[in-house]
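Hey, quick one: can you model this chain's 3D structure?
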Amino acid sequence: MFSRGGSFQLARVFGIRIGVTPTWFIVLFAFIYLLTGQFGDVVEGSDTQAFVLAVVASLLFFGSIILHELGHAIVARRNGIGIAGIDLFFFGGIAKLTKDAETPGAEFRVAAAGPAVTGLIVLLCLGGAALANHAGDVVDSARFTDTQVTAVEALVGWLGVINLYLLVLNIIPALPLDGGRIARAIAWRITGDRARGTRVAARAGQGFAYLMMAAGLFFLVRSDAITGIWLLILGVFINQAAKGELVASAFSQRIEGIRVADVMDAEPVTIPADVDALRAQDEWFLRYRYPWFPVVTAEGRFAGVLHAERVDAAVAGGQPALPVSELLDEASTAYHVGRDRPLRALLNEPGLRELGALAAIDAEGVLVGVVTLDQVRRALVEAAPGRTSV
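Sure thing. Here's the predicted structure for all 390 residues.
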């Protein structure tokens, strides 16, 4: 699902940052408050025991949400998609992907992974209770209708049923829910058009949001204020998120035809690979005052990026005759992009963010230009000056 605002880190799991936003604490405390009273009704014992059960149940529930999002994150990694982290917030959690899936198959696998984990949690809770011959007690405790259950039965029942609700909600075929992303992947595969699949699933998301808001009003009228307000707020946020998907899709279509060659500087200043450090310092860095330059071979192929600090260090270290080809940034050979690559594909390029520019090369690796972050930003602004509508 979706998130708003910043977060702070709670932990790291498999190298993935787990964070929470301030709004998460509101939901956590609300869960503990409501569950304390409910567990007090179904489990014999003191108020303190009911409070402890409520705290444990709330933490287990949010732990199951983290597992849900880890399902998305791990499958995304296996499909070549980076993970910026997982955040818990007012309406659940979100695995923040660094880029969109490039194929409908990858989109489907990443979207389906979360519900699959939640479904497994449901099976473990209810299946375990059934194997222990306590299925009836567990279901009754989850509905808070039986006062003769143990603390473990109450916890297992509530965790299983709340995850079942979460699973049902998430598989509804409406963006931004996981079911909507699955539906988009299927439509994308059938039509070959990601934007069309997004429009279908996002429109369904807006329709579902309106139904939720109508249900919220119904519960308000029927004097169930908590459920009514929750459904109204959730419906508003789902509607806004679905609208955001439509805007993003329309924007992607606007820039789909723009290529790197359309925005790059076709005559960049370069340094030949056989130039020595002293000459590079005098004729390039002191003259142009740039922090780095692309280096090319005698055939014009991109060799890497040369930074001013390395040149200065070589000269100061008594190696002024050292060829610049030996001073290149080890990672700089990756700072290039094909001249015909879509501009949209550059939005999540780490090299563009780190270096501020990328070398544009042709099929033979010959440097044909440089595309800068400012050029990309200007192209995006020109492509979407506020005229995108949904």
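One thing worth noting: Residues 192-256 form one domain.
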